[in-house]
Amino acid sequence: MEYLDFELPIKELEDQLDKCQVIGQESDVDVTATCEQIQQKLEATKKDIYKNLTAWQRVQMSRHPNRPYTLEHITNLTDGTFLELFGDRNFKDDKAMIGGLGRIGGQSFMIVGQQKGINTKMRQYRNFGMANPEGYRKALRLMKMAEKFGIPVLTLVDTPGAYPGLEAEERGQGEAIARNILEMIRLKVPIITVIVGEGASGGALGIGVGDKVYMMENTWYSVISPESCSSILWRSWEFKEQAAEALKLTAFDMKRQNLIDDIIPEPLGGAHYDKVTAFKSVKEYVLKGFNELKNLSTADLVAQRMDKYSKMGEFKE
């Protein structure tokens, strides 16, 4: 297990607990009471830390190296029934954007999401989860296929942003994202979106338009990352913590502003501490959202989605 800077007190107590248990196993000394005391202190420390996370600490949690990424979510949500589909039928297959068919709780879904990669080699292969235009066009192709066959769409968002390279701009990055937003707004099947990690900028919005939008507890969703915001406003990344607070990018901030529908709770310590429980929670919310949408007529579904997004941004003093 890797630890973030604010998790170091937890690491120290876990190390103490491990040493205490080893002493008990390798000697005749009864250390049961001592181990129980350390365990109680460990649980209290975890609750104190994780129940009072700052916005920047939640950003760090969303980037935790042990946090489950999109493919791991898909594998567990679909119980191994996922069939990946490839290519945008125009340029090439974008490895940062994955998509395909899978069954969740007996219901078929077209699942689309960004994959970052779990090690250095895979991160390079997946372009760190930053999709090119062909990635968004692949996503749209699969969503239109789902519409054709009446299959609901599930999108899993986890990206630091769309790829900003020159070649991506040459191939129409802005147009590809804008096209996805337009087409998703009027897609004739239910769309459920879950932010499972980072939800940054247009890269997230390119697959983020949903009838139901959920955020996992330790994720963020914003037009810009705290580091980029800090570099623009203060000409330095040193103010990223202040930027994170000002951006109101946590799941709780987004829920208060009615920009998402609900927050998916995570196990104490984050999704990586108990992946099975985290996957179960995501599955419950996905199926709950689908059950609330499945009986709507196509006209009502699209009208409700358009009304939902047209109300965003309204402000009254």
Describe the structure.
The structure is a single chain. It contains 14 helices and eight strands. β2 (97-104) and β3 (107-114) form a beta hairpin. Helices cover 49% and strands 15% of the residues. It starts with 7 loop residues before the first helix and ends in a 7-residue tail after the last helix. The relative contact order is 0.12. Strands 1, 2, 3, 4, 5, 6, 7 and 8 form an eight-stranded mixed sheet that branches. The chain is of the alpha/beta class and 317 residues long. It has helices at 8-26, 32-50, 55-62, 70-77, 120-125, 133-149, 166-170, 173-185, 201-205, 226-233, 240-247, 251-256, 275-293, 298-310; strands at 83-84, 97-104, 107-114, 153-159, 191-200, 212-216, 220-222, 262-264. The model has no long low-confidence stretch (mean pLDDT 94).
* Range of strand content: 5-15%
Question: What's the total number of strands?
Answer: 8
- Terminal Cα separation, in Å? 47 Å
- Could you give a short account of the major beta sheet? 8 strands, mixed
General form? globular
What are the segments in which pLDDT stays under 50 over at least 5 consecutive residues? none
SSE ordering: HHHHEEEHHEHHEHEEHHHEHH
Over all CA atoms, what is the radius of gyration? 21 Å
Mean pLDDT: 94
